Amino acid sequence: MISLQSVSVRVPVPRAPGQGWGTRTLLDDITLDLGERRVAFVGANGSGKSTLLRLLNGLVLASSGRVTVDGLDPATDGKSVRRRVGFVFTDPLSQLVMPTPLEDVELSLRRTVRDRTGRREAARGLLAARGLAHVAEQSIYDLSGGERQLVALTAVLAVEPAVLVADEPTTLLDLRNRLALRRIVAELDQRVVLATHDLDLARDADRVLVVDEGRIVADGAPAESIAHYERMMA
Ligand SMILES: Nc1ncnc2c1ncn2[C@@H]1O[C@H](COP(=O)(O)OP(=O)(O)OP(=O)(O)O)[C@@H](O)[C@H]1O
């Protein structure tokens, strides 16, 4: 279970020149229990979705209130939480650390597959299963945005996290790969929490929450929450 109890995130922001610093509230007193297998957050640009997701693996810490992931607090058990929570960033280059997809996936497998040859074969197999065999040994920088996004997802899933958190995982994908990603998310055994502007992906979730100016303004079945969001944005 993922729980947020009265969680707020506040950051210091500069006031007008010479006026010192003020505080901006990015998330405002959010209380949630997320027990569903597929949870999606939708909301306008800058509403606070990424900040909320980042709380789940300790990349952002609550200014007040408490976050727990399966009983672990990212503020105090950061390492254990990050083992449980696989995080896919909007910008894949911020997480692909090795020169090629093959090496990046191998890195993810280093704990589970000790033997080097076996690890290479396993990494090749995982990339092939995502239609990425042909780019396995290409430079990360020569991949298309969509290929990088799929490699990042493959590398994160290779660790077999208990929870997959994905921040706008379809932004760089073409229609075929968007459909493939929806299928991957639907078939995963793991729990998935994502933020997305892709309302088709959100519709596949068990629960959709609408974020607006750092608050949850709708929370429920996809059809109702998305209808609320569409009215809000009209
Ligand atoms: N460390 C920070 N300091 C100041 N402002 C911040 C900080 N982090 C985020 N923000 C601001 O908080 C707001 C919410 O950001 P966040 O990235 O969570 O939005 P989002 O809903 O994910 O948006 P998008 O859909 O555009 O990705 C934005 O206005 C952003 O500029």
Automatic annotation (TrEMBL):
Residue span(s) of domain ABC transporter: 2-234
SUPFAM superfamilies: P-loop containing nucleoside triphosphate hydrolases
Record-linked InterPro entries: AAA+_ATPase (IPR003593), ABC_transporter-like_ATP-bd (IPR003439), ABC_transpr_CbiO/EcfA_su (IPR015856), ECF_ABC_transporter_ATP-bd (IPR050095), P-loop_NTPase (IPR027417)
Gene3D superfamilies the UniProt entry points to: P-loop containing nucleotide triphosphate hydrolases (3.40.50.300)
Domain of life: Bacteria
Identification of the protein by name: ABC transporter ATP-binding protein
GO CC, alphabetical: ATP-binding cassette (ABC) transporter complex
A single GO molecular function term of this UniProt record: ATP binding
SMART domains assigned to the protein according to its UniProt record, in alphabetical order: AAA (SM00382)
Keywords: ATP-binding, Nucleotide-binding, Transport
Family of this protein: Belongs to the ABC transporter superfamily.
